[in-house]
Amino acid sequence: MLLGIDVGGTHTDGVAVDLEADAKVVTSCKVITRHDDLxxxxxxxxxxxxxxxxxxxxxxxxxxTTLSTNAIVQGKTEDVGVIVSAGPGVDPHNYxxxxxxxxxxxxxxxxGNEVRALSTRQLTxxxxxxxxxxxxxxxxxxxxxxxNPRHENFIRRSVCQCRDDESCEFADFVTLGxxxxxxxxxxxxxxxxxxxxxxxxxxxxxxxxxxxxLDEMGLAHVKxxxxxxxxxxxxxxxxxxxxxxxxxxxxxxxxMGIIALTDIFHDSVILDIGGTTTDIAVFADGAPxxxxxxxxxxxxxxxxxxxxVHSIGIGGDxxxxxxxxxxxxxxxxxxxxxxxxxxxVTLTDALNCxxxxxxxxxxxxxxxxxxxxEKHSMSPDKLASAAVAAASDAIHTATKDLxxxxxxxxxxxxxxxxxxxxxxxxxxxxxxxxxxxLKLDLFRxxxxxxxxxxxxxxxxxxxxxxxxxxxxxxxxxxxQRHVMFIPSLSxxxxxxxxxxxxxxxKDAVNQLTMQLDSMGVFLEPEDAQITHTSxxxxxxxxxxxxKNIRVKCQVRPGVxxxxxxx
Amino acid sequence: xxxxxxxxxxIFFPAFDWAISPTHPERQERLLYTQxxxxxxxxxxxxGVREYKxxxxxxxxxxxxxxxxxxxxxxxTRSHMISAGGAMKAADLVMEGERDCAFAMVRPPxxxxxxxxxxxxGFCNINIEAVMIEHIREKYGHKRVAIVDxxxxxxxxxxxxxxxxxxxxxxxxxxxxxxxxxxxxFPQELGGPNAMGxxxxxxxxxxxxxxxxxxAMERIVMPILEDFKPDLIINSAGQDNHFTDPITNMNxxxxxxxxxxxxLRPDIAVLEGGYSIQGALxxxxxxxxxxxxxxxxxxxxxxxxxxxxxxxxxxTTEYIEExxxxxxxxxxxxxxxxxxxxxxxxxxxGDTYVRHxxxxxxxxxxxxxxxxxxxxxxxxxxxxxxxxxxxxxxLCLGLEIPIDACPDCRSRGYQLMEDGLIxxxxxxxxxxxxxxKDYVRHGF
Lengths: 566, 444
What we know:
heterodimer, A: alpha/beta, Nucleotidyltransferase, domain 5, Rossmann fold, 4 domains, six-stranded mixed β-sheet, 15 helices, B: alpha/beta, Arginase, Chain A, 2 domains, seven-stranded mixed β-sheet
């Protein structure tokens, strides 16, 4: 039995899925999310589910939480000492995330050569200043640290003065930039390392509380995974060092839910139409598209991998307004719809009037719409249909724009440019409250087969329950310098001049498998996919002096099983 | 967050799967470290900076500019069409107002490709700037364009394409041709009889450093641009003036390149040469991007940058100061065309200008012989005709009816084409009619 809990903005959804019985949803529940006490919402949902299923049959709990996201949005974060080695380039002070930010002289170049050693004097001063301010968590970030982590390691040793990863009397936690992923992007590395530290304590307290609660409920044997924004999970113990990876996992849960509920193998569009927003996601060849570089937290772009989800301010509770001749829907939400006791007419009220759905008090919707139409000298029918049309148009246009953006993504080889793979959706999947009611209108806009899957109201929790662990790593090898390095694992090996692309690909897959294995995740060899591989001959003068190899390998987001559709 | 003052579009196309040959400077690896540097610096995350995919140039885009013999597809590869298409995309971004300025960081380069193309010269097959400019003129109307070529090698191809065009100002700053390929680019090369002073060459002595380049920019280039009042300024942004470049002898730096672009404020920059792929390109490209976007570039510095060591000596400064005194006159008060007796310089007989030339294609090892004639017309810039032969290959004919052609020159062009067809001396014939946008080929 697999449990899935998605702590959302309004509701916390829970499900239990029985893998033995064809991944059938055994039970589900919805409780209110209490933002000041998320744990209580989680335990409440768990208790309801456990009243229906046998505790001993539960093997896994996947949890999607807004904890880190909320902490960041509400500024309930801890002070972080951010110490960077930037070297020449854009002034790093442009990316200063917090007060205790120190730039230390020293630089490493794009090949990973140390051009200038770190200034020990400056570093000591920086650390002292952080300590004076009572800082207990630190981010060590170097430019090109994913090529050579020497400066980051040096900063960590200076901060902690201890060899292992445990906390010491000087610091509770240190984030090393290169461990956040192999991608090249120094400003993002700074921001990601900062956020990772800023929510570290809060997240770890929550993680411990969850473990304690499970223990008390007799679920100590259950393996707990935390959802990430990329549509995968990470085991709870690993997530303690990577709390930043747990942000924005909500939309991912919904998208994974659709994968679990349907059998997507085409290019498709997923529309999750909620109360305030519609989330648009795109699938290429049945797999969700990933944000190319990483998601932004506030105005800070980060390295956190996320599914590409575009949100627009159109939902069931979006207000209808009339400006001149034009009927508009959203982007504001001013309380609930009239049919459930609100004051301003909304998209849901319009759908009620059209007879597309029956939510709450349909007559209240009718009366309010008629009154509002009268004020703008329109017939109520016209107002309702214009509002529904406006909402469908907005969703359709936003989807088209998103597809254009995806299809204009830069490529770097002639082969890719000529091949020109474009995402052309063949199908539209709808979920969320107003999904059924808007189906026909959206079908008219898209002119594509449109489907609303069953159980769509708890798809997010089902997605959470069935999502599998993902992991990715980037391998970088430079045979002239005889170095192979996997930043996210801090794994470094000396390689021979004859080391080549094939060796690198093999090593990347092996290391990924071993890493997952150490986390207790069993991986089929075909699950590890090479997503990027290249090898450049490095030439000096007129002769080849080595190879510059880059391999990226990942376990693609996916679900363990799709529900009852075999 | 960092915000750009100018909206900058970057067309980054490193062609990671194309090389002239495995160890050739123009190989896959060339923009690899530039990519790494730009990504690590987070250039594409700066608000106001956006990366775009290149377009692919069509045969017609090339035939609007060049006489390619035997035909476009046999002297170009896909990578050339993408490189030119990248420059065209940069132009469209700026012309349509989507971006304030754009930088086409594409390869292979193009500024050694001349009007007639039989193969590759100086790593260039088609002139990507010229293809871009004529694309602009075809699509957005006839613009006055200034090209400032800051590649270390003389931009002899671009000079040749615009030799007779008074609406295109071509200024090339380069290492003195007496010391470097292609061995041309001297001050007396000023353009054809109808376009004297629209070609300006600034040959700088070896070891010129930032000081000398910026002096030449400030005292020669900027005053000329101010007077010419171009609709568009284009930088042929070659990066081989760098002190680490393996095939040149200059001492320019990333700071210098950035300052140059800040001064020039090009609407469009197009990458040309530059083969110090680790020590120079990552930093110069970063510097140019930041300067174009109007973001502080003062911290951009090469790892081995020692300004004192690469400083130019007093004699060099003196020499450049003298150039700065002499060269502007060639634009502001160009000498009359000397219709002397040197047919390599061009002679005038009656209403016809004739020039005999030999062009060597170093990359492909081709020797071309050509005779160029221009009708000296009072009403337009005249009908252009070129007869050309590569090595012992067949004789080919190129005719160009200019954009402002008078009826006489226009009908004369068609007449010559017809004569060529009937007399049959030419294996291949191509006509570019810019006035009516008619592009005709025969013999293919």
